[in-house]
Inverse folding.
């Protein structure tokens, strides 16, 4: 069985907000550190939008500060992974489980 996924990479919070305004993705995988700064605002905007409230969001970031992680988890993300501690395989396995549920 073949699956097709479109991946839309963005490097800035501004580009992420523009992409989300134009597209309705099934899932978002994001870093909290984008070229123009922390992307907490993108996550807040995403969760505030009623249509996107249930969309799975997975964070894979270098930020490993417990307070920041707790803040992000309280925003309803499906998973939080720390680069250098968790592996891309951990992220991949969560994405597969979210896709099949």
């Amino acid at each position: 069985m073949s699956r097709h996924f479109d991946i839309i990479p963005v490097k800035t919070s501004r580009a992420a907000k523009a992409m989300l305004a134009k597209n309705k993705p099934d899932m978002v995988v994001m870093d909290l550190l984008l070229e123009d700064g922390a992307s907490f605002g993108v996550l807040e905007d995403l969760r505030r939008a009623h249509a996107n409230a249930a969309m799975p969001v997975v964070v894979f970031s270098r930020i490993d500060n417990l307070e920041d992680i707790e803040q992000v988890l309280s925003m309803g993300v499906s998973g939080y992974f720390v680069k250098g501690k968790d592996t891309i395989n951990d992220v991949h396995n969560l994405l597969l489980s979210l896709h099949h549920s």
About this structure: The domain at 13-100 is CATH 3.40.50.2300 (Rossmann fold). The beta strands are 28-30, 33-34, 37-38, 57-61, 79-82. The radius of gyration is 13 Å.
